[in-house]
Amino acid sequence: MKVYLRGLTCANCAGKIETAVNALKEARQAEINLVKQTMDVSLAEGAEEQIVLEKIEKIVHKYEPEVAVALENKESVKLKGCSCSRCHTENDDHHHHDHDIHSHQHHHHQPVEEVDGKKLWLRFGCGGMIFLAAVFLRDSTAGILLFLFSYGIFGYDVLLRATKNILRGQVFDENFLMSLSTVGAIAIGEMPEAVFVMMFYQIGEAFQEYAVNRSRKSITSLLDIRPDSAEVFTENGIKRVHPDEVNIGDFIFVKAGERIPLDGRIKEGSALLDTAALTGEALPRGVAPGSDVLSGCINLDGNLKIQVTRPFKDSTVMKILEMVENAAGKKSKTERFITRFARVYTPVVVGLAVALALLPPILGFGEFSMWFGRALIFLVVSCPCALVLSVPLSYFAGIGAASKNGILVKGGGDLDTLCHITHLIFDKTGTLTKGKFSVVAIEGKEKEELLYLAALGEANSNHPIAEAIVEEYEKIKKTPVDLISGYKELGGFGVSYSLDGERVLLGNQRLLEQENVAFSPFAGVGSVIYVAKNGKFKGYIVVADTLKDGLQEALTALRQKGIQSLTMLTGDRKENAEAMANELMLDGFYGELLPQDKVRILDEIKEREAPGKIAFVGDGINDAPVLAGADLGIAMGGIGSDAAIEAADVVLMDDDIGKLAVGLRIAKNTRTIVRQNIVFALGIKALVLILSAVGMASMWMAVFADVGVAVLAILNAMRKK
């Protein structure tokens, strides 16, 4: 069950709501995603969704009365407490209609944010001018009245919320703490300090809301890649429909400048595609008939007829949206710790403040007013928002930075794991190699004739090696069409045929040995096809799955980022695996493996390399078990299978191993920022608390320790990764 909480921006309140919902007997587990303003709730057996929703609504409104509570479904969302005109338009049944959650956000939030922004500027402008006037007249009655008026402008809503919450039985929230500390400051004659504390508190609140909204927009901006319609070929011509109405096998038409709505294969036309939204790559990619294309790409310069290969719900663009939207909800251990810490921190500090105000005067260590002033400073420092908000924002900013580079990280915990990876295990085919056979060497006196003879014999085969030879020949000539006779497939050896009365042999070493043809054996890496004509050896052609471009540089970059060992697993022959491992300077390799062998090898490596975290990088459906079994599974998103992508924790959208080094950098920078925020926030707060207890801290220092630290921590969280 997913509940939408429109308007929730307070991290401290979110933690309290989460705790209260978790205490419900109908809820097994509740987790709030503040950036998305949603709460995922696992229901207990037999619990009714509507009853739980009503209880959640009461809990939310206890802490945040203005937050609208909604039940979010995949197709639509029913908003409660929403005041937009669309929601109050009567339909045929005179009930509020359902509409898409993202559409609602688009039409509802934009004008509200503009109005709120104008009110904020007006508030701070008027309040600030009155405060400055009060400073100049501070020793007069007019100055006192101006201070009170300025305090009312900045703090009326805080005082009102504090009063309402006390009546509801919710005492120790930030509104109460801020009200008590500032009213107390006024009572002991610190008027400027009281106004300034309230003003800075409001600045901090506004900045926190801005930071959350900015991070949220980094998600909603991705909605731009979600297509709204598709032009499908029908018996009556081209018809524009919603993408989910298009079936597999249907043909769609995509004009220049339009976004491709569904995954498919080009049947007619060629064009350049902008794939930046999916892969982070700025350079366009050329496509032609036979090319596979992914939804979300922009057709830059040509008209394309595409045959759909996946339904809309399983398309690349929908998978990306689902993964990125869910990413912020998967919290890291650090985030969970900070949430638990905040629940304890505030009550402890409030308790210490009460003790500081009462115990010393009772024990005869000074006047009550002096210790009361120190206790007020304690209260100002007691809000944990700097931690509760900046830590999740740091992780979400890291996830956003990774997605812009074509790296989809499925959660903060996965980002944490990524920065601790010390050992990488790679699948070979499609991961380290291009996953496609091609001719890598032709050895013989007459190379063109050699290739021609081989292409003639392989033209009718659909074997990958045969296709590679024919494709190589087509680069210099058209498809071989010469008539051959006596074509025979020699099982386990190769093929033979006659051309102009001369017998041609294509095959392996055993074929030539059987036919007593003298030849020079090939000793390198790859699949070799020997060619003989009229009993004479003509040469050989080597076909291999070639390494990806820039792979050596990518592996070097990974070592520079702290990867200690690189291992390759493959089902290929051990000789080929060894040669490739030596070429890439890998630390280990395993060849001739079955899918179940890969899982066994992974377990052995995990036992051997116990101190470090291990990631597996793969692309095929047979890699799904080992992707799930590794500390971190990394899938190739462009050509990877759906099963591999589902099982993985990180997806490389453009299949570029070099992006892993970028992901490691982002993950490690995120971890550094999180640590900086924790140490900085706790350090400053602890220092000011100690100084206030001994009478060396002022209210100004307390304001910096609360609002100032929160603003700096949020700025640090949002800086470039």
Automatic annotation (TrEMBL):
It is found in: Cell membrane. Its EC number is 7.2.2.21. InterPro entries: ATPase_P-typ_cyto_dom_N, ATPase_P-typ_P_site, ATPase_P-typ_TM_dom_sf, ATPase_P-typ_transduc_dom_A_sf, ATPase_P-type_domA, Cation_Transport_ATPase_IB, HAD-like_sf, HAD_sf. Residues 1-68 form the HMA domain. It is a multi-pass membrane protein. It catalyses: Cd(2+)(in) + ATP + H2O = Cd(2+)(out) + ADP + phosphate + H(+). Keywords: ATP-binding, Cadmium, Cell membrane, Hydrolase, Membrane, Metal-binding, Nucleotide-binding, Phosphoprotein, Translocase, Transmembrane, Transmembrane helix. This is Cd(2+)-exporting ATPase. The gene is cadA_3.
